[in-house]
Each structure stands twice: as structure tokens, then as C-alpha cells.
Write a structure and sequence with these properties.
single chain, alpha+beta, Arc Repressor Mutant, subunit A, 2 domains, 3-stranded mixed β-sheet, two-stranded antiparallel ribbon, 42% helix, binds zinc ion, binds manganese (II) ion
Length: 142
């Protein structure tokens, strides 16, 4: 079992093999998959897996702070088990989402706090454009 899940077990949460597999899959991919993509990847190994279980498990993991929910996509949330501070670039053509470990936004956050009076918890950047593969295919003459 992934170490991070032991924290949840100690809190008394039920960690079925399916739930463990969902977290494990997310931890071992850089693709920032949607719930549907996670379901499609795990269903062959867990024929009894339902979409509901995938959604419930993702919600639980987000709530417990083990997974980040990314709203880079209008149609579906994407998920990331890397909770370290980083930003994301999304390809407008193929939808690929890539990590960008750029500068921390802490000083900007403090500035925003003093200007708005909010107590702010987090900030991140979403970039949009064309990924390297789509740039290459754009350059090919039709
Ligand atoms: Zn692309
Ligand atoms: Mn990421």
C-alpha cells in the first residue's frame, strides 16, 4: 500500500483494493487524468469497478489533501497526486497537461492578501497554448 494511504487507514477509512489502485494509478502517472480515464485504465483489472467508486474515491482523496483537482478543462476535472507546489500548462489542441515547477507565488499571495483583505490559502498558474507535439504537427504542410 502507498504510504500516504496509511494516514487514511489510521483515520478509520476503508481502503479497498479498488480505492488503493485508484490512488496508486494517480501517483504513478504524469498525465493528470480525468475520472473517466482512470476508470478506463483500471476497469480491465477490476471488472467490478464502477464509475461511482472512482468519483467517490477521488472526492475523498481531494478532501483529505492527497490529490489535487485541476480545473484546466471545461468538460471534466483532472486529477494530480503530486500535491507539491507547481503550475500547469494545457495544450489547447490535444488537451495534454504538463507540470511547470516555476516560481512560488507566495509573495504575490501576500500582496493579494493585503490588497483584498482576504486570508488566502493558495494560488497557482494555468498556462494555455500548444504543446511541442502539436507545434510540430502544425508545421507540417498539409
Ligand atoms: Zn498538444
Ligand atoms: Mn501536476
Amino acid at each position: 500500500m502507498d504510504e500516504e494511504l496509511l494516514v487514511l487507514r489510521r483515520k478509520g477509512m476503508r481502503l479497498t483494493p479498488q480505492r488503493q489502485a485508484i490512488y496508486h494509478y494517480l501517483k504513478n502517472t504524469k498525465s493528470h487524468p480525468t475520472a473517466e480515464e482512470i476508470f478506463a485504465a483500471l476497469h480491465p483489472r477490476f471488472p467490478g469497478l464502477s464509475r461511482g467508486t472512482v468519483y467517490n474515491t477521488l472526492n475523498m482523496l481531494v478532501q483529505e489533501g492527497l490529490v489535487r483537482e485541476l480545473r484546466v478543462d471545461d468538460t471534466a476535472s483532472r486529477y494530480d497526486a503530486d500535491t507539491s507546489q507547481h503550475h500547469h500548462a494545457t495544450c489547447q489542441k490535444c488537451g495534454r497537461v504538463t507540470d511547470y515547477f516555476g516560481p512560488s507565488l507566495d509573495s504575490l499571495l501576500r500582496e493579494a492578501e493585503s490588497e483584498t483583505g482576504y486570508r488566502l490559502e493558495s494560488a497557482e498558474l494555468y498556462f494555455e497554448g500548444l504543446c511541442p507535439a502539436c507545434q510540430a504537427s502544425n508545421n507540417v504542410a498539409p
